[in-house]
C-alpha cells in the first residue's frame, strides 16, 4: 500500500518500490483464475480456439501486472520536496511506465478480440481499462476513496471472467454472470486482506481505504461475511444446476483456516494474511474450474 514518507526513504522504503515488489506476483492468481474460469464458461457454451484462449490468459496477466505497477503512483506527491526521496520517486515513475506498457500490450490483445467479436466487446475493454487506470491514478483514485473492495468485485472479478468468455464467442447470460460471483467475492476478499494487513499503517499515513474508514473490527466482520458468501453462493449455484460439481469445493475450506486465524493476531504478525488469502483464491479457483466440468463428487 502507499505510504507517506515523513522523514525520507530508508533502504527498506526504497525497496518496496523495487520493480519485483511493485509487480506483486502474489496477486497473479487473480488474473490466472478469473481468465481460466472465463475460458471454461465459454467452452461450456461451445468450441473455443486454443490460441485465442492463450491470448485471453496473456491479456489478463498483462492487465493485472499493469494495475500492480501503477499502484504506487499516488505516492509521488507525498515524496516530493525531499532530496532523499529521489530514488523512490524514480523507481515509482519507472514502474508506472512499465505498467502503461503492460496496458498497451493488453489493449493490443483486446483490439484483436474487438475485430473478432464486434463493438460491444470494445465497450467492455474500455470499461476494464478505465477501471484499471482509475484504481490509483488521480483524480479518480478510487482505492483512496474506500471503493477498491467494491469495484474490484466487478472489474477484476465479474468483468474479467465475463469478458474472457465473451472474447471467445460466448453469450452473456444471467447464468454466466451468476457463475462469476463466488470467485469475484474472493477477488474482493484478496484486496480486503491487503487493507486489513496494512490498516494501522494506512491510518497513520492518511490513506482512506475502506478498512480505515470502517475500522479494523468492522473490516474483519466484512472479511468473514464475504468468505461465507463465497460458499453460500456456491451452494446456490449447485441448487440451480449451474455448478454441478460444487462438492469439489469442500477441500478449499482447509485453506480458510490460516487467513481466519491471522485476522485475530497483532499487526506485526499479520503480514502473511494477504499471501494466505491469495492461496485460498488460487485453490478455490482451481477447484471451481473442476466443479464446472465434473459433477463426479455428487455421484458418489
UniProtKB/TrEMBL annotation:
<feature type="transmembrane region" description="Helical">
    <location>
        <begin position="98"/>
        <end position="115"/>
    </location>
</feature>
<dbReference type="InterPro" id="IPR026046">
    <property type="entry name" value="UBIAD1"/>
</dbReference>
<protein>
    <submittedName>
        <fullName>Prenyltransferase</fullName>
    </submittedName>
</protein>
<feature type="transmembrane region" description="Helical">
    <location>
        <begin position="26"/>
        <end position="45"/>
    </location>
</feature>
<keyword id="KW-0472">Membrane</keyword>
<feature type="transmembrane region" description="Helical">
    <location>
        <begin position="147"/>
        <end position="170"/>
    </location>
</feature>
<dbReference type="InterPro" id="IPR000537">
    <property type="entry name" value="UbiA_prenyltransferase"/>
</dbReference>
<keyword id="KW-0808">Transferase</keyword>
<feature type="transmembrane region" description="Helical">
    <location>
        <begin position="176"/>
        <end position="193"/>
    </location>
</feature>
<feature type="transmembrane region" description="Helical">
    <location>
        <begin position="121"/>
        <end position="140"/>
    </location>
</feature>
<feature type="transmembrane region" description="Helical">
    <location>
        <begin position="51"/>
        <end position="70"/>
    </location>
</feature>
<feature type="transmembrane region" description="Helical">
    <location>
        <begin position="278"/>
        <end position="298"/>
    </location>
</feature>
<keyword id="KW-0812">Transmembrane</keyword>
<keyword id="KW-1133">Transmembrane helix</keyword>
<dbReference type="Pfam" id="PF01040">
    <property type="entry name" value="UbiA"/>
</dbReference>
Amino acid at each position: 500500500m502507499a505510504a507517506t514518507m515523513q522523514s525520507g526513504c530508508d533502504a527498506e522504503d526504497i525497496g518496496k518500490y523495487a520493480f519485483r515488489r511493485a509487480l506483486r506476483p502474489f496477486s497473479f492468481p487473480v488474473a490466472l483464475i478469473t481468465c481460466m474460469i472465463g475460458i471454461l464458461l465459454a467452452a461450456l457454451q461451445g468450441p473455443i480456439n486454443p490460441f485465442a484462449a492463450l491470448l485471453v490468459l496473456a491479456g489478463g496477466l498483462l492487465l493485472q501486472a499493469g494495475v500492480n505497477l501503477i499502484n504506487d503512483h499516488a505516492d509521488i506527491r507525498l515524496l516530493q520536496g525531499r532530496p532523499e526521496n529521489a530514488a523512490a520517486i524514480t523507481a515509482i515513475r519507472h514502474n508506472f511506465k512499465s505498467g502503461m506498457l503492460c496496458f498497451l500490450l493488453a489493449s493490443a490483445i483486446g483490439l484483436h478480440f474487438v475485430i473478432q467479436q464486434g463493438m460491444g466487446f470494445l465497450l467492455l475493454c474500455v470499461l476494464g481499462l478505465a477501471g484499471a487506470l482509475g484504481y490509483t491514478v488521480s483524480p479518480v483514485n478510487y482505492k483512496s476513496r474506500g471503493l477498491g473492495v467494491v469495484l474490484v468485485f466487478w472489474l477484476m472479478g465479474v468483468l474479467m471472467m465475463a469478458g474472457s468468455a465473451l472474447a471467445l464467442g460466448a453469450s452473456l447470460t444471467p447464468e454466466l454472470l451468476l457463475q462469476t460471483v463466488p470467485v469475484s467475492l474472493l477477488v474482493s476478499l484478496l484486496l480486503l486482506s491487503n487493507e486489513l494487513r496494512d490498516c494501522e499503517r494506512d491510518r497513520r499515513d492518511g490513506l482512506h481505504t475502506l478498512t480505515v474508514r470502517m475500522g479494523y473490527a468492522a473490516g474483519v466482520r466484512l472479511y468473514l461475511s464475504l468468505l461465507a458468501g463465497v460458499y453460500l453462493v456456491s451452494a446456490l449455484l449447485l441448487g440451480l444446476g449451474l455448478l454441478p460439481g460444487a462438492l469439489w469445493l469442500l477441500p478449499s475450506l482447509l485453506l480458510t483456516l490460516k487467513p481466519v486465524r491471522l485476522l485475530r493476531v497483532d499487526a506485526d504478525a499479520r503480514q502473511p494474511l494477504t499471501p494466505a488469502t491469495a492461496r485460498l483464491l488460487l485453490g478455490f479457483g482451481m477447484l471451481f474450474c473442476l466443479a464446472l466440468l465434473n459433477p463426479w463428487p455428487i455421484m458418489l
